[in-house]
């Protein structure tokens, strides 16, 4: 275990001090590594919370300014947009998802992704019908 063994097989005092120093350094290094890792993990979690709060705050500020801008608009402009004055805040907060769901369902099957035989079947019909693009087709 020790390089120099003194009288009766016991290590020299200098060897004991050197071994104690190494062990102490190793223990301190391990505890510093653990502490640094703990601090880094806590700091990362804290920064995620700060990021989320900042995003929520900026989103609230943006929505509030959008509501104010739409409230300043006249009724004709709101009618052009398709938002009644009583639904401005709901439209800004939730978007226009409820109105666009029907369009999404109608256009769910994109014409480009249909197999060729199915496209041919649509083209061969001589009647008026609904095409997968969401518009009426006359063939």
Detail the topology: elements first, then pairings:
Elements lengths: L12 H60 L2 H7 L6 H7 L2 H10 L9 H9 L4 E2 L5 E2 L2
Antiparallel strand pairs: 1-2
Helix pairs in contact: 1-3
Overall residue-averaged pLDDT value: 77
- List the helices and strands in order: HHHHHEE
Query: Strands across the major sheet, in which order?
Result: 1-2
The biggest beta sheet, please? 2 strands, antiparallel
Number of helices, where a helix is a run of at least 4 consecutive DSSP H or I residues: 5
Q: What's the β-strand tally?
A: 2
Could you say which overall geometry the principal axes of the C-alpha atoms support?
Answer: elongated
Low-confidence stretches: 102-106
Q: Span between N and C termini?
A: 95 Å
Radius of gyration: 36 Å
Amount of beta strand = under 5%
Secondary structure class reads mainly alpha
Classify the helix fraction into a percent range. 55-70%
Multimeric state: single chain
Provide the number of structural domains: 3
Walk me through what this model shows.
The chain is mainly alpha-helical. It folds into three domains: 1-61; 73-106, no CATH class; 110-139, no CATH class. It has five helices and two strands, in the order αααααββ. The protein has a two-stranded antiparallel sheet. Helix 1 (13-72) packs antiparallel against helix 3 (88-94). The longest helix is centred in the first third of the chain and has 60 residues, at 13-72. The radius of gyration is 36 Å and the shape is elongated. The termini are far apart.
């Amino acid at each position: 275990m020790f390089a120099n063994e003194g009288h009766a097989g016991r290590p020299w005092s200098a060897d004991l001090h050197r071994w104690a120093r190494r062990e102490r350094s190793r223990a301190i290094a391990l505890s510093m590594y653990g502490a640094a890792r703990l601090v880094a993990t806590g700091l990362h979690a804290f920064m995620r919370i700060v990021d989320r709060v900042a995003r929520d705050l900026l989103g609230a500020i943006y929505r509030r300014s959008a509501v104010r801008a739409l409230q300043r608009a006249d009724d004709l402009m709101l009618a052009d947009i398709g938002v009644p004055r009583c639904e401005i805040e709901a439209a800004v907060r939730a978007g226009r998802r409820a109105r666009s769901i029907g369009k999404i369902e109608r256009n769910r099957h994109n014409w480009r992704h249909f197999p060729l035989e199915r496209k041919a079947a649509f083209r061969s019909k001589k009647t008026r019908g609904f095409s997968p693009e969401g518009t009426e087709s006359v063939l």
